[in-house]
Amino acid sequence: MSTPRALAWAGADPYADALRTGRGPLFLRRSDGWLLPLEVERWCARADPVDRAVLDRCEGAVLDVGCGPGRLVAELAVRGRTVLGIDVSEAAVEHTVRLGGQALRRSVFEPLPGEGRWDTVLLMDGNIGIGGDPGVLLDRVARLLSAGGLLIAETAAVDVDERSEVQVVAGTGAGTDGGAFPWARLGTPALLRYAGRADWRTVGQWTSGARRFVALRSLPRARLRTAGSSAEPPNNTALISSQRARKPSGDRPVADW
Question: Which of 99, 41, 97, 92 is nearest to 75 (CA)?
Fold first, then answer.
């Protein structure tokens, strides 16, 4: 089952409102006051050329973790692919279904359909930060994938390895009804370090526009090593990420993605 910290994101009204309207501004606010902008307009639009090029790399059945409003799930469904999105936000799941995709309101750390049989897992839009512990998340993804399965993750545009507590806020000074939850921000070098410790094989890394991606393939040792661990680690939640940052008006600092 979801932890109370999972509900911090799921119950954040500014996020649900933004998805329903398709507009921001929306941010993750760190405890030190820095703002991480969320690209609501892009997420609520159809898959763009960069997205579609990533989806061209997907293999077999695809699980989109933190699917948000479902642009990637919908695009894969149009292509006739077997695809499922999961998200802790009810508004995100509803939006995905309206686009014609299949989605469940579920944390990645909860039991999921097809565990150990997914051919590709997507962690797009910075979702490698889900739960605030990249090592734990990589272990969980290894158990979701079939042997030799593919993980495609979008990383930060800068070299960073950061963990923090964040809240969802609408605008630079607005509050939130949801509580704080753990989040991580990783650049490509950091993700490759975590992957190397967890017996993943790097099969690709690339930049498209201002966005960066890594493709990893699970190894049998990774699956065996994590087979006995719990489906849900304590205090880690499945959340949707922010992406590349821009600085809003005013003097409030904003992190670079």
Answer: 99
3-state secondary structure the chain: CCCHHHHHHHCCHHHHHHHHHCCCCCEEEECCCCEEECCHHHHHCCCCHHHHHHHCCCCCCEEEECCCCCHHHHHHHHCCCCEEEEECCHHHHHHHHHCCCCEEECCCCCCCCCCCCEEEEEECCCHHHECCCHHHHHHHHHHHEEEEEEEEEEEECCCCEEEEEEEEECCCCCCCCCCCEEEEEEEHHHHHHHHHHCCEEEEEEEEECCEEEEEEEECHHHHHHHCCCCCCCCCCCCCCCCCCCCCCCCCCCECCC
Name residue 163's beta-bridge partners.
184
Provide the whole-model pTM. 0.82
Contact 180, 166 (CB under 8 A): yes
Model confidence at 206, pLDDT cuts 50, 70, 90, reads very high
Q: Name the token pair of 248.
A: 């809003």
Distances in Å between the Cα of 203 and the Cα atoms of 42, 81, 138, 248 are: 27, 22, 16, 36
- 72-125 confidence digits (pLDDT tens): 999 999 999 999 999 999 999 999 999 999 999 999 999 999 999 999 999 999
Q: Residues 110, 115, 116, CA angle at the centre, nearest 5°? A: 140
Q: Which residues pair with 62 in a beta bridge?
A: 83, 120
